[in-house]
Structure formats: structure tokens, C-alpha cells
Amino acid sequence: MSRIAFISDIHANIDALEQVLTDIDAQGTNEIFCLGDIVGYGAAPAECVELVRTHCSVTVLGNHDHMVIEKGPIIGLERVAAPLCLAREQLSTEQIKWLKKLPIVVEREALTLVHSSLYEPKDFNYITAKDDAKWHFEHQRTPFSFIGHTHSPLIAIQDESVVTLETPGVGSFKLDPSLRYIINVGSVGQPRDNYPRACYGILDTERLTFAWKRVPYDIKRAQQRIRDAGLPWANASRLDIGY
Length: 243
Ligand code: ZN
Known about the structure:
Structural class: alpha/beta
Bound molecules: zinc ion
Mean pLDDT: 96
Number of helices: 8
């Protein structure tokens, strides 16, 4: 039996990540795969990179991770740029080296991993509508793919030329081996589906199920860290409402 845990969009939220890893440990999984965006928005980028590096057997690059390792100044909205500048200050040379080696897409037997979309993956496109899913499916060579990026759980199902989308949010979903799937595993550190608990998923390759798990964590502590680091308060206040 193989049970694989998927985490994504941790966004430097060490309080959420620690609780999720404890929960994963209790679920008896064989491996943990990370779908990127370890840094950004939150106040503990180095701690999060270290935990992902030591716990995950596969990690792909997210857009925030990419902005940290890119050459040149980080520009953009303060709520995006300030935490990335903090990450550049905090991450060790070794951690930066590790980020630079992360692949954009990984194929592992029946599974494909990518942060955003297989349609021009370096552009980090979002999959929120049927057409986005169709473009992604055109490049998907395996029955199942796993993504993050929107911070909201989603499942796209392809039955020949018909694509349907569902947003389960929590609970177990039965997978049909005759169909193809894109599964958004949700966000550990900054859920945006109006449900503030940390989100991750578990694939059971024998039972053919995917389950979204929601884990409570100390949101107040994560918010205090953001305040103490001098990052925009908007990055903290959104954690309360899960958006
Ligand atoms: Zn993200």
C-alpha cells in the first residue's frame, strides 16, 4: 500500500507546517511531496525551507520560491515583495542552492507534479476554470496531476473531451482509473477557500482515493510572527478568515 501526502503553498508559515507534519506522521504515509511556494507572505522562510528539505522526497518550484532565487531586486506590492526580501536575508547559501535546483515539473510513474499549470509552467498560470484545466490536460502525460498555486482545493476530471470541476474542500474523493485528474491539494500556510485551517492531501494509490485534510494550528502565533518581522498586517489578518 502506498499513501503519499501532498503539501503546497506553505508560505513561510512554520506554525501551520509543524502541525501539518505532525498530522501526516499520524496518518502513516510513505512519502511527502511538496508542490512549491515554501516562502513568501509569512515570517519564517528559513525554518520552512529546512523542514521541507528534510521531510519531502520530491519538491517542485513555486512562483514565490522563483522570485527569491531570481537575480535583481524584488519588485511589486509590499505584501508580496517584503516577505521575499526577508527570505533573501534569512535563507542560508545552502538553502538558496537547494531552491535553485528545484525542478518545475516532475513525473513519477502515474503522477505529475507542478506548482501551477502544465500549460507554460514557467509562467505560473492559474487553474480556476474549465478552459484552464483543458489547456493543462493537453500537456498531461500521466493519469493524475497534482498542483497548488490558487490556495483552494479543486479537482478537475477529464472524461474524453469533457472536463468538469469540483471544489470539495475537505473529505475523501474516489478516483476512477478510466478518467484523468488534476488535483489541487490546497494550501498549508494561507488557505483562500474561506476555511482558515491548514490544508493538505493524502493519495492512497491502492484504494484510489484522495483526501483533503484540514488541520487547526495556532493562527495567533503565526500572526504575531508576521507583526514582529515588520511585514504588512494584511498578510496576518487574512489567516483568520482563510482568504
Ligand atoms: Zn502560493
